[in-house]
Amino acid sequence: MAVSIDRVYQKVLAFANKEQRGYITPQEFNLFADQAQMEIFEQYFYDINQWTRQHGNSHEYSDMLVNLEEKIDKFASIAIGDNVTVLNQYGDINLNDDLPDLYRLGSVRVKYPSKNRYKTAEEMRSRKQFVLYESSPLTKRVEERPIYLRHTTSTGNDRIKIYPYPVEDNGGDYHVQVDYMRKPATPNWGYVVVNDKALYNVTTSTDFELHPSEESELVYRILAFAGIAIEKPQLTQVAASLEQSKVQQEKQ
């Protein structure tokens, strides 16, 4: 299920055009739509962290933590096979190439020829932590307990390096699996121009990937962005008022 981008666009135009508050072009709308979707998506992670610290309830459809997990689960990519390429014998993996829609990194698993199953590698949060782990016989990387370090190259590539280095099997293949949270697809209100008017084109459009319950939130956020862009503070105020009403309803 998704949120129709045309429904959101028509609602945004209806609010914006009411009382001559201004017109929002398709190009502007698409920029605002992407920003609004990403803000809502990012907020899921903070909200889950907050609700995890609170007790849920026994109601099937109103437990906030369950609802949030439902909204975000569709973006979780769980590897069922080797889904990244080991670039060299030193265990380098370029995330930009293999996971172009990566948003947050999850588990990294590696299988060495000497082992019959994948081992989950522990992330080193910094080079300092890596050095500390390496200096102790109890935590030093071994095939039974691999680790990885994430870093950015001088050319801007997002990479991870696994220790001990992955080893090719008899067929010359490396075995590494990466779970991750992907980004939502960029929304796009596609259109064709007929008699100087932009008309919706479903074949070139991309709907929002968020849960259907986020439709009103998308409308309010896009309105707020539009009010700033077209210098119509009253439009931003309308959006803020609608948003506040929604928040109050959720907290009742």
Task: Outline the low-pLDDT stretches.
Answer: 246-252
Tell me the helix content. 25-40%
Give the topology string: H per helix, E per strand: HHHEEHEEHEEEEEHH
Question: What is the overall silhouette?
Answer: elongated
Question: Mean pLDDT score, rounded?
Answer: 86
Biggest sheet architecture: 7 strands, mixed
Strand percentage lies at 15-25%
Number of separate helices: 7
Overall strand count: 9
| SS-based class | alpha+beta
Oligomer: single chain
In whole angstroms, the N-to-C terminal distance is 27 Å
Order the strands across the largest sheet as they lie in space: 1-7-3-4-5-6-2
Whole-number tally of structural domains? 2
Radius of gyration using CA atoms only? 23 Å
Question: What does this 3D model show about the protein?
Answer:
By secondary structure, the chain is an alpha+beta fold. It folds into two domains: about 5-75 and about 185-250, no CATH class; about 80-180, no CATH class. It has helices at about 5-15, 25-50, 65-75, 95-100, 125-135, 215-230, 235-250, and strands at about 75, 90-95, 100-110, 120-125, 145-150, 160-165, 175-180, 190-195, 195-200. The strands form two sheets. The protein has a seven-stranded mixed beta sheet with strand order 1-7-3-4-5-6-2. A two-stranded antiparallel sheet has the order 8-9. Strand 3 (about 100-110) and strand 4 (about 120-125) form a beta hairpin. The chain is elongated and about 70 Å long. It starts with a helix and ends with a helix. Residues about 245-250 have low confidence and may be disordered.
